[in-house]
């Protein structure tokens, strides 16, 4: 059920850190990054679900900022694959239909084995020990949110040894695009058995410890495919208004 990576009404004001007034044009970049970090956390946690309207005036009020850094934050999140900006209409949390999600997962099946292979030479014993610890903690995770948080840290760590120009950023974008659908899936089906998911995590660490890039790639490909096939069985997770529809 997992490859592994985060509803309320669309008009709900976004949340973030306590407001503090930003002063001066030179600080807009820092303010944009701060706002983007807060919105990113709200989107990946599911607090802002796919298709939610993001109203610039509400974000500006929440963060005590002008609309200039808010627009900058939304541009950052659009680059991350988390926000859809529509000219003269506004901003929405990015939303996929089933076909788009299927395509994203098919891309992941092909490119993440490449990334794990590139990462392998840079994975230290300390990193692999940390992955073992994360795998054990996932088995004890109390909620889908906890599981997916640990899961994303596990996979981010597995790729952390790679030095790439575009591949790691592209994989991160695909993860961002599909994160909320994994979360919705686990919230609905957390009672289903997931032992095979934990087995795959352990198999991946074992292959990496043995320096076997081919086996690690095979484990990753099957791991991703399992979630893709499970999501395809539940098209209701992709229902909802498309951004800009109203």
Automatic annotation (TrEMBL):
Parts forming coiled coils: none
Residue numbers spanned by region Disordered: 1-31
Keyword Transcription regulation: yes
Keyword Mitochondrion on entry: no
SMART domains the UniProt entry points to: FCD, HTH_GNTR
Keywords: DNA-binding, Transcription, Transcription regulation
Positions of the HTH gntR-type domain: 29-96
SUPFAM superfamilies named among the record's database cross-references: GntR ligand-binding domain-like, Winged helix' DNA-binding domain
UniProt cross-references to PANTHER family, sorted A to Z: TRANSCRIPTIONAL REGULATOR, GNTR FAMILY, TRANSCRIPTIONAL REGULATORY PROTEIN
Protein name (Swiss-Prot/TrEMBL): GntR family transcriptional regulator
